[in-house]
Design goal:
mainly alpha; globular; single chain; binds Phenylacetyl coenzyme A
Length: 311
């Protein structure tokens, strides 16, 4: 009997079944996933850099330990995601090469500098908060290895979000100078965080396929709106002021009206010209080169293990 693979694939999606690596899948679905998962993986490991910058300057031993654990978690997220991408038939070397030569994208947010300790709070609170808002739906994405990686990642991200909010709470209820630092960080991170959700729906070329294939279950604008609705009461609790002067509660839509971020700035950043793009690539390339001996030692260890098992 002839099997119509395309129909089988479509019927699995219609039933909310999960697609696994050995299942037949359309080539465009595979490519779409490799693009999204690898960009996501790159974001995790590049995201380690702005925070890593503050490990040596954390204001207490406790804060240092918590930040170290968080940054280490992000490395782990990169690992799960690269592995999920590899299950689609690409290789880690190929993916990392695209990152290191500047061909691959990663989240725009990590091209902004961390100027003060409050930025570490703002990243945990806002950036991890936005990441969770976007990633909760990815736990039910249609590709099995990606969905499973996201379950664990989401658990860890919610710890990260609380870490950031704790830092912001301490600063906001601290001295006038500390509160000012918290406000300054909010002012600088607010609009770049809104950009994390991607361009407006009408300018998002990948969304239609992503929704059709159940890779994304909600649109960029829907998630951005939910993030704003959730975050404004947190800003109010902290006694801070949202830098958006057009922010206004809209009773009819039961949500806030807010200003669009500067999309020209977003395009500039994702095309390699943000404040820290060059610095991030230099740091990533150096880290990769410095880690060469570790990869060689691990490969040799694996080879010896295989040899002794075969003997
Ligand atoms: N930055 O058609 P769409 C984190 C690109 S993880 C850079 O709407 P799509 C954890 C997009 O790739 C943060 N590029 O695209 C952490 C596309 O370009 P392409 C990362 C962006 O895929 C916290 C073009 O624009 N999260 O933060 C961005 O449907 C703290 C058109 O866009 C994920 O990756 C952007 N913000 O929607 C770590 C989640 N937005 O490829 C350390 C998974 C769009 O056609 C510390 N990814 N672009 O050349 C997704 O959900 C989606 O890929 C979106 C974009 C929502 C990011």
């Amino acid at each position: 009997m002839d099997v119509n693979f395309e129909e089988l694939f479509e019927s699995k999606l219609a039933k909310n079944d999960i697609i696994e690596p050995k299942d037949w899948m359309p080539e465009n679905y595979r490519k779409h996933l490799i693009r999204q998962i690898s960009q996501h993986a790159h974001s995790e490991i590049v995201g380690m850099l702005p925070e890593g910058n503050w490990i040596t300057r954390a204001p207490s031993l406790r804060a240092k330990l918590v930040l170290l654990a968080k940054v280490q978690d992000e490395g782990g997220h990169g690992l799960y995601l690269y592995t999920a991408a590899e299950s689609l038939g690409t290789s880690r070397d190929e993916l990392l090469d695209a990152l290191h030569t500047g061909k691959a994208k990663y989240s725009s947010i990590f091209n902004y500098p961390t100027l003060t300790w409050a930025d570490i709070g703002a990243i945990g609170w806002l950036v991890d908060g936005a990441a969770i808002m976007n990633q909760v739906m990815l736990q039910r994405t249609s590709y099995g290895p990606y969905a499973r990686a996201m379950v664990r990642i989401c658990k860890e991200e919610s710890f990260h979000q609380r870490q950031g909010y704790e830092v912001m709470t301490k600063l906001s209820f601290g001295t006038a100078e500390q509160k000012e630092m918290a406000q300054d960080a909010l002012n600088r991170w607010w609009f770049p965080t809104l950009m994390m959700f991607g361009p407006p729906d009408i300018e998002s070329p990948n969304s239609d396929n992503a929704i059709k294939w159940r890779i994304k279950r909600e649109s960029n604008d829907q998630l951005r709106q939910r993030f704003v609705n959730q975050t404004i009461p947190q800003i109010e609790y902290l006694g801070l002021i949202c830098p958006d002067t057009n922010l206004k509660w809209n009773e009819a839509k039961q949500g806030y009206d807010f200003s669009e971020p500067n999309w020209a700035e977003f395009k500039n950043v994702i095309h390699g010209n943000g404040p820290c793009n060059k610095e991030r690539l230099v740091a990533r390339n150096k880290a990769h080169k410095d880690g060469e001996w570790v990869r060689a030692a691990a490969a040799e260890f694996g080879r010896k293990q295989n040899e002794s098992q075969a003997a």
